[in-house]
């Protein structure tokens, strides 16, 4: 059973990179001036280093949802495999999804099947703030868009913008490592059956997991780039900067209260905000509708899968 858990966790980390990491890198490299290696290097460094500095509140929230202290190897496999199956199945039938939502749904379904009391306040905060995050990011991005952009002399607009984007991308990678990226830390904690705080100090293991995440990001980059080109709104360097800043601020705020937020959904909301400042016609609304579909589908689908898998395992083992 341990080897099944190991394979499931490694696949989970890779898929996180393919979904989340690829989206972040695609955002960063959509316009000229940002080399591919820069966002990849930031993510590779920040994923292990941020938890090492004691920032693992989001991973601990996932641990509380899982009831990790009483979770057997089989239950951990049920959670990870249900999450992966939901994401894979959604992709196959063309339904938008979110790996963060799938994990929260699977954790809740598995806990119910094991009769582990759910922390209603934690779950409610996670769902509520998760729903609000894209709208908060949209509002912040819209407000930033209204600010005047006048680079000081003798800097050219392009040079000034490039410097700001480097800062914004650093903020974005930091925010991801402090929030959504802590799914990686949680998966490693499942493998080692150790508290997330202890796992965060295991630097070699965390860098190995980060390397696997980056491999997934590189693998998923072509599809993520295609989605952005036909996604929410027309992109230019200034609008991307505004969306990156808004997303970073939103997700870091979620980290402060230990709430996992979907980085990809927050980016989608931020891009919506920059588009609405120009015109409602500048927004491709079908891309926005994907967020709603993801919520309606992903949480219950992953929850039901995990619940059924846990009950099946319990029946077979009794």
TrEMBL record:
It is found in: Membrane. One of its GO terms (cellular component) is membrane. The chain crosses the membrane at residues 36-56, 68-87, 93-113, 125-147, 184-201, 207-228, 288-309. It is a multi-pass membrane protein. One of its GO terms (molecular function) is phosphate transmembrane transporter activity. Its main location: membrane. One of its GO terms (biological process) is phosphate ion transmembrane transport. Keywords: Membrane, Transmembrane, Transmembrane helix, Transport. This is Inorganic phosphate transporter. It comes from Scrofimicrobium appendicitidis.
């Amino acid at each position: 059973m341990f080897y099944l858990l190991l394979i499931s966790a490694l696949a989970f980390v890779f898929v996180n990179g393919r979904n989340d990491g690829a989206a972040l890198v695609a955002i960063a490299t959509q316009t000229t001036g940002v080399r591919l290696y820069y966002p990849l290097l930031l993510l590779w460094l920040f994923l292990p280093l941020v938890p090492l500095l004691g920032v693992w509140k989001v991973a601990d929230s996932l641990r509380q949802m899982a009831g990790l202290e009483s979770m057997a190897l089989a239950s951990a496999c049920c959670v990870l495999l249900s999450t992966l199956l939901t994401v894979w199945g959604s992709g196959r039938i063309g339904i938008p999804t979110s790996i963060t939502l799938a994990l929260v749904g699977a954790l809740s379904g598995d806990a119910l099947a094991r009769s582990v009391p759910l922390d209603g306040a934690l779950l409610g905060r996670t769902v509520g703030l998760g729903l609000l995050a894209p709208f908060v990011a949209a509002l912040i991005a819209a407000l930033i868009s209204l600010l005047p952009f006048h680079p000081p002399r003798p800097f050219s607009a392009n040079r000034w913008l490039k410097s700001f984007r480097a800062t914004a991308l650093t903020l974005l990678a930091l925010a991801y490592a402090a929030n959504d990226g802590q799914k990686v830390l949680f998966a490693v904690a499942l493998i080692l059956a150790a508290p997330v705080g202890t796992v965060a100090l295991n630097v070699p293991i965390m860098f190995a997991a980060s390397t696997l995440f980056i491999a997934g990001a590189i693998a998923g980059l072509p599809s993520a780039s295609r989605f952005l080109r036909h996604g929410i709104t027309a992109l230019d360097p200034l609008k991307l900067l505004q969306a990156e800043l808004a997303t970073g601020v939103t997700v870091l705020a979620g980290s402060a209260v230990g709430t996992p937020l979907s980085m990809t959904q927050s980016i989608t909301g931020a891009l919506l905000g920059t588009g609405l400042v120009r015109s409602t016609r500048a927004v491709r609304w079908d891309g926005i509708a994907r967020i709603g579909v993801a919520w309606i589908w992903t949480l219950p689908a992953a929850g039901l899968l995990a619940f059924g898998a846990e009950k099946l395992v319990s029946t077979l083992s009794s």
